[in-house]
Structure formats: structure tokens, C-alpha cells
Amino acid sequence: ESVYGGSANVQSGAEAVLTQRNTVNVYGTVMFSTYGGDAYTSGTGSATASGNTVNVYGKSGSHGYDYLVGGIATATAASAATAEASNNTVNVWGTVTGSIIGGSADARGGTAIAAKNTVNIYGTVTGDVVASLCGDSPNANTVTLSDNSVNFCAGSVGGTLYGGLISKNQSSTTTLHISGNTLNVRGTNLSAKDIKAFQNVNF
User: Fold this and answer.
1) Residues sharing a CB contact under 8 Å with residue 16, sequence separation 6 or more, in sequence order
2) What pLDDT shows up at residue 169?
3) Which residue from 135, 132, 124, 122 is spatially nearest to 185, judged by alpha carbons?
4) 3-state helix, strand and coil shares in percent for the chain, rounded to the nearest 5
5) What does pLDDT average to over the chain?
6) Pairing, β 67-75 against β 99-107
7) Can you give the pLDDT at residue 172?
8) Strands 82-86, 95-96: parallel, antiparallel or unpaired by DSSP?
9) pTM of model > 0.90
10) How many angstroms separate the CA atoms of 86 and 100, rounded?
């Protein structure tokens, strides 16, 4: 089963949901997806995953579709609810079989914010590396993906490096704010399939 540093779930009502400052350290082998923090609401309150960290020293994932996520926030109500994933961090010294997401925010009818999330790569990732993701917010009023970073220091990435990624089409009425997403290439002899959706690239 999946591993969570912290998880909070509200099915109805206006209560705010918060998962904050949780840490997952992987030293051996984790077979499935790993989340530093997971906040979910189907009510009208906000969902926030903030300041969570995942450190991989061993091996995470083995099925090719697994994810390693610093923090994920989801608000499914068709209302003005806010989902925010911010200041989450993923550090990889070992091997990740699958893809990495620093912070993911989905709001079906309100506001989705993924900001100031960081992925630091010193090891091997077989899939994609995504600093910030809005994966399923088709009718969101506003989507913000800003000031997220990937620091590629050593190792290799089998997939693509993304700064701010929207994986599904948004409504024509959705306001998008995508800015300040940065790739910092710190090492030598690094490899990745491609780089996309960065506003800043530093070598």
C-alpha cells in the first residue's frame, strides 16, 4: 500500500484540512507510491498540504506508475474551495522507479495553488520529475503554479523535467498564473529526456 507522512480527509462541511511539516524517510525499499502530506476535502473548506518532506535514500516504487509526492491537496466540491500545495520538498539520493511531484493541487471548482515546492535530485529517477502539478481542475476559477524549483545536482532522469505542469485542459474561464518556475542544473554528466514548462533555466 501507499505510504503517507500525514493524511487528512473531510467528506463534507466547511472545515479546513491541513497536513503540515510531515517527513517520510525511505532507507530500504518502498513498493508503492509515497506522499509526504495528503489533504483532501469534498466539502466547501480549504485543503492545504504545506512544508512536507520526502527523503529517498533507498528505493521507492517498482511498478512504473508509482508516484513520489512531497505534498498533494485536493478539493473536489464544485464550489469556491481552495486546494494549496506549498513549500513541500522531495530529496532523492537513492532510486525512484516512477515519477516525482514536488507539490500537486487540484480544485474542481475553486482555486488551485502549487507554489514554492522543490525537488532535489542526487540519484536516479526512471520517470518524470514535476516541480508543481495541477492534474485535475477542469472548472477551477484560478490555477496558480509559481516559484517552484527542480535542482538537478547528480544522477539521471529517464523522463522529462517539468516546472509547472497542467496535465488536463482547463475551462476557457479559468485564470492561469504560471510564473517563476526554475530549473537549476548544478552538476555534470547529467541526463534527462527533456525539459519543459520552466520560466527560468540556470546552468
Assistant:
1) 45, 46, 47, 48
2) 65
3) 122
4) 0, 55, 45
5) 90
6) parallel
7) 67
8) unpaired
9) yes
10) 15
